[in-house]
Amino acid sequence: MFLKNLKKIAFLALTSFAVIPASAQDLLASQAPIDRTMKSIDSIALKSIIQKENSEVVLGANLYNEWSNQYTHKETVLPDSFLIDLRGFHMPTDRTNVTSNFGYRWRRQHKGIDVKVYIGDTIRSAFNGKVRIVKYDRRGYGKYVVIRHYNGLETIYGHMSKWLVAENQEVKAGDPIGLGGNTGRSTGSHLHFETRLCGVALNPALMFDFHNQDVIGDYYMFQRSTYQRESAVANRLRGAGAKGGKNNAEMELARQKPAKSAVAANVRYHKVKKGESLSTIARKHGTTIKALCNLNHISTRTRLMPGQILKYN
Which of 32, 71, 93, 109 has the most neighbouring CB atoms within 10 Å? Predict the structure, then answer.
């Protein structure tokens, strides 16, 4: 019975192929290699597009014109405003003791935050990105790493005892990149952590809260016009006293006009929640939409993002 059924199936299959016209068979035969060729071309084109997009993303939201392993940082023109995506972050260390703030220290600019770590502590990448620099600077950073991130930031990790990554290596947020140390110009084991935009050092306290092991929100809106005041306030809220003198926040505020200092000390912030609008935020804080727009340098048509930080006074 089985052989009989098998012969029947074979006969039906042969007759079904015979029904197809010769021209159709020729078309199918000639089309097959074309289809394979097109799939190959599509695959190559798709890979090219993905590589191009990834390359542009690695360059940091189109803020940078080049990729180089030669310089640590090169300052270019900062945008008037830029929204930095802080989602998917990982704290560079689980230590919480900030020993020195961003700002003036010993009559010179300290362009990062110092966090107390011990030799051998794991140092991790703050965001997804690509390692641009792995070098040793005996008079400065010691053993350090520079990573360019997809959100436009570059982060610098200094004074490490050991590197765990190589230049041009892709890293994920939280990947180990080195071990804590006391190399270079350092008076004790610690992590010197910098955040830079277009090569310009920004106060990490505007984005990172080491005491609470968190970021300040899903996004940070950098504004050139208000950055200095916000930096001083961030030091006061999340920083520590500078070594060998006044608190960095106090020194920064002292450099500004008294009126601006008073305003900076009383600035209040609102973290945007899903579904909120300018009108609901204005009502909540007893202000107006116009006032919110003026304070944050936005328009009434600006789309608010959950996690975005807005000033409301």
Answer: 93
